[in-house]
Amino acid sequence: MKPAHLRARMADMVPPLDAIDRKLLDLVQRDADFSAEALGERIGLSASAVLRRLKRMKADGMILANVALVDPAKVGRPTFFIVALEIERERPELMSRLRQWLNGEDQVQQAFYVTGSADFILIVTAQDVESYDALMTRLMADNPNVRRFTTNVALGVNKRTMFVPVRPD
Predict the structure, then answer these.
(1) CA angle, 140 as apex, 93 and 110 as ends, to 5°?
(2) pLDDT tens figures, 48-88
């Protein structure tokens, strides 16, 4: 059991979710095109109550965005690269500059600051190896604090989602 002061701090960081909130989050993650009326029918609320809950979850930062999941192959970005970056120094200004650079690159779909032999793991999409190479050349030129990177090319994609399981209490 965590000490009371840690439980209180954790409770402040995570807004309480009831069973209806959890069902609502599950549904909108699976398909954000559901109307408030359709969501309400599925969870037993009025459309206005659904909209109030969704608005609260957005204001609380629980729902970050409503986005479309695009098929990369159908828009000319069929290739994925999993990249491990190693950096020289973890000075705050250098880390901030690298994070800003990564956040500004649309080809970098995800960037994780990690433990282990790498400092960052990136998921990158590209038209082909040449466009990936150009991106990484720019990364190295713009961020001299990057020591090296290693690349794994995804040969196939078995699962691609941003779904977050919302477990009941």
Answers:
(1) 75
(2) 999 999 999 999 999 999 999 999 999 999 999 999 999 99
Q: Which domains does the chain have, with CATH numbers?
A: 4-59 (1.10.10.10), 72-153 (3.30.70.920)
| Residue in 151, 147, 111 with CA at minimum distance from that of residue 132 | 151
Tell me, what amino acid is at 46?
S
Q: Cα(160)–Cα(163) distance, rounded to whole angstroms?
A: 9
Q: What is the distance between the alpha carbons of residues 117 and 1, in angstroms, rounded to a whole number?
A: 32
* Contact criterion met (CB below 8 Å) for 71 and 119: no
Query: Which token pair is 101?
Result: 């650079």
Sign of torsion over alpha carbons 102, 104, 108, 112: positive
